[in-house]
Amino acid sequence: MTSSTVTSSQSPRPPRPNLAFRRLRGQRSPAEFAAAVRRAAREIGERVSCDARYIGRVEAGEIRCPNYAYERVFLHMFPGRTLTDLGFAPRSAVRGRAARASGDNAPLSRTTRPAYAEPYEPYAPSEPLDDPHDPFVNPHHPYEDHEESDVLRRAFMTRGGATVAAASLGPLGLAFDALAADRPVRRAGASDAGALEEAVRHIRLLDDRHGADGLYRRAAAPLRAAYALLDAGAARQAVTDRLHSGAGELAISVGWLAHDSGRFDDARSHYAEALATARMTGDAALEAHAFCNTAFLARDAGRPREAVRAAQAAQRAARGLGSDRLMSLLALREAGGWAGLADRTGCARALARAQALYERGPSPADPEWMSFYGRAELEGLEAQCWSTLGDWTRAARHARRAAQLQDPHFARNTALYTAELADDLARGGHPDEAAAAGMRVLDLLGQVQSSRVRTMLAGTARVLLPHRRASGVSAFLERHASTPRTI
């Protein structure tokens, strides 16, 4: 017989929703609010691994009192308020013992571990960037309990009899009616699952064509609505499964929009949402997708070792799915991590594996979301690996192939590959060719809204500054300098 999981700091009573904290979140999604918490923590020198799941547990009343690190962050975010004002219980009541002699409100040392740490969130006065409790760094993180109610509580829903907000993406084609506060949420049907799946397709299509910056905030409303539908439930298990899969894929899509527009903390939280949903339902395909994007994010965020681990976890999840193309893409994600670690041998092996798997051809088992993955993307990702390793000539060769192979209808990827080419040429000692490629990217910026592309182009411009007398470089630099930085 296993021992009870209820600790002395957890109450056996049913949790009471923390409505005060829910009101403070306002119109922000749990993921957006979690990102705000992490930003506030950095402002005061704290490190907390807050994600939407944690916010959900607080709002559900499961965390009656935060640990000391979170206490400092919350009081910094809401000056003038006490923990009680934020809806939390007194620490002495939660701990089941008297407060320390110095009092709960005494200042806390950053180097002293509190005696009664909050059970759901480890106290980490100097938490590393690769947080071992992050849900996509450690597959066995302490949050994972596979309970549907818990996953849905932490997802995008309101508490008690509150209103489920109207969610509409206008031209993206996903809208759910607002529900009155005094009316129960109707159960979801097959039409809702279909609308959710179509929204995912539409978001991906618009991102391919135009980039992420103009879409990210507009895509948050359907994500909230999707998780509200999950909370409402469905009469048939088949519909429930489609809703879970659709909500997870939508979370990944919104996470990618955050990722591509430079909002890495938001992206990390959205990918964790998708991973939690995948694990709760045993959806290997969704888990592989979540880990795939996590690996890409980790590489871009300067955490190459995490990128390797996440890519390898994705490959384990995808092994039984029967898609060689998916395994090829995941090998490329692993290669990107090895490149970031300056491991040329590990990178080359992963690239060779990716090429071999790609050559096996497409399969009916290939996931729908992989429609972007063709020869152009493979060449583009390989170019990024060689660029990271400093092999500019090889990187430029692959980037050129990628730009040539890309369907010009998808302006965002065309701009991305051409920006990669411009940067590789500039760093490889070909300023005139780099300037010409940079001009082609500038021509596309009217159609493309991607912070990633603009950041790459800005880096190229800096590299080209000492070569402004070379043919075409001065014209490129002048035009780049006059291009609006905001969208």
Automatic annotation (TrEMBL):
Region listing for Disordered, in residue ranges: 1-20, 99-147
Polar residues: which segments have biased composition? 1-11
Ranges of compositional bias, category Low complexity: 114-127
Protein name in the entry: Tetratricopeptide repeat protein
